[in-house]
Amino acid sequence: MQLSKRLKFIIDNIEENTTVLADIGTDHGYIPLYAIKNGLCSKAVAIDINKEPLGKAKLNAILEGAGEELDFRLGSGLNPLEKGEAEVVVIAGMGGNLIKDILEEDIDKVNELNYLLLLPAQNPEVLREYLYTNDYEIIDESLCEEEGIYYELFKVRKKSGESMALDSIYYEFSPRLLMKKEPLMKEYLISKKKEYEKILGFITESTINAKERRNSVIEKINIIDNMINHF
């Protein structure tokens, strides 16, 4: 089974000997199917809110010879799971806001998990702020790049007393990735600097609001420059 770079990145962060893995928003079901086929877990639950991708996931499982150890459930977020049923949950391919809402909606189930692997497709800063300020232990953060797009992976678990408020800039740029000098972090910072330079080029008005916005973007570019020099 051929996995994309992003999906293989998630798989590489699943600990071996997991009993039950649940993949939320499973799409074609590649993550739970690969985990089963390669002995990373004993059972997997593939969950999706839409019938069509779940049907494709079932077909893929049949073609790969997977049996009853792979379960398919139609539903939203963690709703199809029983409390305490899964040890590990993967949520990937959604925006940071939606992932945050999914966790909040079933926080009692989140409390029972060994850990979660969260990979937002957009707005990772929203998810990071939520995790850092709502009693999640940040086990690890990692970064991957696929076709010019950078993806941030959060490996976390719910644990009281772990909240830690940060300056807003560090919700956008992970302090953990900066401190451990994540190999891709410099490239990521350079790409973000280019984005802000492009934004700066669009701010052409001379109103007070435009000037404040321009100064804010310039300040952020300077901060990113300092971060790049860290590497």
TrEMBL record:
Q: Which GO terms describe its biological process?
A: methylation
| Any one Gene Ontology molecular-function term assigned to this protein's record | tRNA (adenine(22)-N1)-methyltransferase activity
Query: TM spans, by residue?
Result: none
Which EC numbers does the record give?
A: 2.1.1.217
Class in the EC hierarchy, top level:
transferase
Keywords of this entry: Methyltransferase, Transferase
Q: What is this protein called?
A: tRNA (Adenine(22)-N(1))-methyltransferase
Q: What is the lineage of its organism?
A: Bacteria, Bacillati, Bacillota, Clostridia, Eubacteriales
